[in-house]
Amino acid sequence: MMHNSIGYFLGYLVAKKIGLEEAKRRTMAIEVGLQNGGLATSLAMTHFSPMTAIPGVVSSTYHAVSGALLANYWSSKPLDKKQLDKVNKVITM
């Protein structure tokens, strides 16, 4: 769980340090924080006993829940008008 939380924090911090705007910081945080537990589960099932897949399953579940909670939190903290216009411009192109 700490690995996931540190990923969110460091993703956001690095994005801020390199000067990305808020929307991109949030995106970077989620991309870095969410790890591929599904891949871990698949590899464990393929190459080892089924019991080795349990950490991957737990990890996938935790990452899905924590990512959804973070996205929900940020959705309640809207971007300022200038940044929102930039995001909408990119989406409509």
Question: What does the radius of gyration come to?
Answer: 16 Å
Fraction of residues in helix: over 70%
Note poorly predicted spans. none
**Main sheet: strands, sense, barrel:** none
Helix/strand class? mainly alpha
Separation of the first and last Cα atoms: 38 Å
The number of helices is: 5
- Give the strand tally: 0
The total tally of domains equals 1
SSE topology string: HHHHH
Percentage of β-strand residues: under 5%
Q: How would you state the average pLDDT, rounded?
A: 84
Q: How would the global form be characterised? A: elongated
Please give a handful of descriptors for the protein shown.
mainly alpha, 0% strand, 5 helices
Provide a descriptive summary of the structure in words.
The protein has one domain. It has 93 residues and is an all-alpha fold. 78% of the residues lie in helices and 0% in strands. It has helices spanning 2-17, 22-33, 37-47, 54-75, 81-92. The longest helix has 22 residues, at 54-75. The termini are far apart.
